Amino acid sequence: MPQAIRPDLLAIHPRHQITRLHIGEGGHQLIVVDQFYHYPDDILQLALELPYTDRFEIVGNFPGVRASLNLETSSLIQTLSAFWGCTLSPFFHPQPIVFQGIKTHNYRLNVGQRQPHIDQDITAMIYLNPAQSCLGGTGLYRHRPTGLERVPIVPDETIRRLADQLELSEEFLSSPEGYENFQNSMIFNPLFAKRDETYINEGNEYWELLHLIEMKPNRMIIFDGRCFHSQFIRPGDYEQAFRVNQVLYLRRDGNHHPRP
Would you say residue 12 lies in a domain? Predict the structure, then answer.
């Protein structure tokens, strides 16, 4: 662990600026908070000193590297809960501070990284790059073949109606494994991904860009991670300098899940 971490490192700037948006036909809430951290330069410096890994059990299908640090986050999560409008808790327990880095030089995107994805529940992310290396951002998308803008944690009436229209067996929605197969075949089908080795960005014939959250220094965003989203990174961006952010995976019901 880096030495001499100030106890108020994760303090929120008293003059932060909140914007509340509703995206798509579903009116999905998006919270954008500018000038979020009081000491963003110190947090970035700390993030750059950590050891990063690209091991699959740590990064999964994330197209980069991750590092973690055990810091007290209860006050931070209380603040995020107030912004979001209900009590949020860590999705994983324990949940460390997670920093992510993306560099595009010599990195080949796989088929899953060339289309949007979803997270566990609520996602909070803070962009940490200085202004001169803030490029692109985060895109939110609609799946054109189904019209879906998000995938619920368990099948809801919309999903069941869609399955009926597609004349799918009830087995697809009667178990977690079946529901995952439904998503992988009907939504995240490899045929729907970008054909060239680039991020989905402006979308394609299968994915419509609903909203681009512009990357800005010390900008925090909270959104429903079940909404389709992706890194918005244009070819040539981040070939030398890393795109760096902090991410927190949260949930609404207060239950904890073991780390996978």
Answer: no
Q: What is the per-residue pLDDT across 146-187, written as a single tens digit (0 to 9) for each?
A: 999 999 999 999 999 999 998 888 888 999 999 999 999 999
Number of domains in the chain: 2
CB atoms inside a 10 Å sphere around CB 222: 23
pLDDT at 232 over 50: yes
Residue with tokens 């990284």: 113
Over range 190-198, report the average pLDDT.
Answer: 95
Cut 0.90: pTM above it: yes
The two tokens of residue 87 are 């009590």
What domain range is 101 assigned to? 17-151+198-251
Q: How confident is the model at residue 260 (pLDDT cuts 50, 70, 90)?
A: very low
Answer yes or no: do 85 and 136 share one domain: yes
Angle between helices 157-165 and 176-186 (to 10 degrees): 60
Give the CA dihedral 107, 199, 98, 18, nearest 10 degrees: 150
- Interstrand relation of 17-23 and 207-214 (parallel, antiparallel or unpaired): unpaired
**Are residues 95 and 34 located together in one domain of the fold?**
yes
Residue type, 243: R
Q: How far is CA 42 from the centre of its chain?
A: 23
Residue 208, number of CB atoms within 10 A of its CB: 17
- My answer on whether 125 and 236 are in the same domain is yes
What are the backbone angles phi and psi of residue 83, rounded to the nearest 5°? -65, -45
Please tell me the predicted confidence (pLDDT) of residue 2.
60
